[in-house]
Design goal:
Pfam families: Foie-gras_1. By secondary structure, this protein is mainly α. The protein contains nine helices and five strands; from the N terminus they run E-E-E-H-H-H-H-H-H-H-H-H-E-E.
């Protein structure tokens, strides 16, 4: 149902008159005595419900909530930065990155989330790191950012990161496909339409990247995806006896 709003006029106090397309005027009021004040009959509940639905429809389709929320978050970040509250600043930066992700500005979302990811890694906030890493990885995927997708993907497949085995398997296959110049599998948690758009971007990115994919990843700054430990084969050894050490990966 398509609704139009030629005008919205205020009748008295909290009573307003609306016109929806070719429908007649009706009153929508939050004041219980509005009918008495205007000298009219009480409003039709069905028409009032339709009016509320029309307002919700208009707000959902015409109001850009992200562009209202993001400047407020930015002002809050500046405020907490001024008074030296790093934890609140990081938290609001994460929320801003998530809002950019909802707004489908994936490059900006990726920039903000990568900026704070290091701090949460150092403090060993496992659930928070996993959540931020998931959103950052999806942003890299949807923006076809090859280097960030591989570096974040390598970190994502670590046992320390909270993620399902199936998602890690798809991610590992996608990393191999990127390195070999093959199409990627659709990532879970992303709509079919967004996956199709991302697939086009990845095809263009791989075709335009003619040189070999060579870049450096500082493994000391990310969560390692390979675990290594060493152990002795025997519990006891004699002096001058050859020792055998087993390395587990």
């Amino acid at each position: 149902m398509k609704c139009s709003f030629p005008y919205i006029s205020k009748q008295k106090d909290s009573t307003f008159a609306f016109r929806l397309g070719d429908w007649d005027f009706f009153l929508l009021s939050s004041h219980p005595s509005s009918a008495v004040l205007t000298g009219l009959e009480p409003p039709d509940p069905q028409k009032e419900l339709k009016g509320i639905m029309a307002l919700k429809y208009k707000e959902y389709h015409d109001v850009d909530h992200s562009m209202i929320i993001i400047p407020l978050l930015s002002s809050a970040v500046a405020q907490f930065k001024k008074y030296k509250c790093p934890r609140m600043k990081r938290q609001l930066t994460v929320e801003m990155g998530e809002e950019y992700y909802c707004y489908k500005d994936y490059k900006q979302a990726l920039t903000l989330l990568k900026h704070v990811l290091w701090d949460y890694r150092v403090e060993k906030w496992r659930p928070i790191v996993s959540s931020i890493l998931t959103t950052a990885l999806r942003s890299a995927y949807l923006s076809a950012n090859i280097q960030d997708y591989i570096s974040l993907g390598i970190e994502m497949i670590s046992n320390w990161i909270l993620c399902s085995t199936d998602e890690k398997s798809i991610l590992q296959n996608n990393i191999n496909n990127v390195l070999q110049g093959k199409p990627l599998f659709a990532m879970p948690g992303i709509s079919e339409q967004d996956n199709k758009e991302a697939d086009k971007l990845w095809q263009e990115a791989i075709q335009n990247h003619k040189e070999p994919l060579i870049f450096t990843i500082q493994m000391t700054s990310i969560v390692p995806f390979i675990e290594c430990k060493a152990g002795f084969v025997s519990e006891n050894y004699m002096a001058d006896q050859r020792i055998t050490v087993t390395v587990y990966l």
